[in-house]
Backbone:
């Protein structure tokens, strides 16, 4: 499989964006303890970069949510919170790779609210312009992007490309013609 070449966000731009958003997060929470929950697997690369820029007392956990069972079209959303740490009475920041229709973050925050955290805010690396189908807006957005399928810096296509250091467009010829 060839590496996608049409770069949307370079490694340098990503680092600058993550550094800037870490500052915004610090302005909100100050020195208060924070629990960061990353939505697996797409947020894993940003999560690693982000938490190393945070100086408040920090707990880190993950929740798994998946709506793409291979391919570029959404399927049924499944959420697995078995690995999530206790968030009752905690301030929680939920981190995901990309805010597209918004259904994933709506469902995950709904599930988390049942566990009675003190607060829940949401942070996404990317927000796809004009795609949202929900009332929720993320509290922190690192980059606004056009409505194209992207990979890299954690984002996959059929479980590949997560390790690209940049974010790239997946060109139509790189997507299987049946859209699966
Ligand atoms: P939503 O529920 O907001 O429609 O979708 C959010 C999830 O869909 C993201 O966490 C991500 O896993 C996946 N997703 C949406 N758009 C893209 C994209 O352009 N590229 C990749 N790799 N995943 C995407
Ligand atoms: Mg995801």
Residues:
């Amino acid at each position: 499989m060839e590496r996608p070449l049409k770069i949307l966000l370079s490694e340098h731009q990503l680092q600058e964006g993550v550094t800037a958003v870490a500052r915004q997060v610090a302005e909100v929470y100050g020195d208060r303890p924070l629990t960061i929950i990353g939505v697996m697997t797409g947020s894993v690369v940003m999560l690693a970069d982000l938490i190393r820029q945070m100086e408040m007392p920090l707990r880190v956990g993950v929740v798994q949510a998946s709506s793409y069972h291979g391919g570029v079209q959404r399927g049924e959303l499944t959420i697995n919170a078995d690995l999530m740490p206790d968030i009752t009475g905690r301030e929680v920041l939920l981190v995901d790779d990309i805010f597209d229709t918004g259904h994933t973050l709506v469902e995950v925050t709904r599930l988390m609210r049942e566990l009675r955290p003190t607060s829940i805010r949401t942070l996404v690396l990317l927000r796809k312009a004009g795609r949202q189908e929900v009332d929720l807006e993320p509290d922190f957005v690192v980059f606004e992007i056009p409505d194209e399928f992207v990979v890299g810096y954690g984002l996959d296509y059929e479980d590949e490309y997560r390790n690209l250091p940049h974010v790239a467009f997946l060109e139509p010829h790189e997507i299987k013609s049946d859209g699966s």
The mean pLDDT is 93. DSSP finds three helices and nine strands in the chain. The pocket of guanosine-5'-monophosphate (ligand 1) is lined by residues 42, 67-68, 74, 96-104, 149-151, 155-157 (CB under 6 Å). Residues 3 and 94 are 30 Å apart (CA to CA).
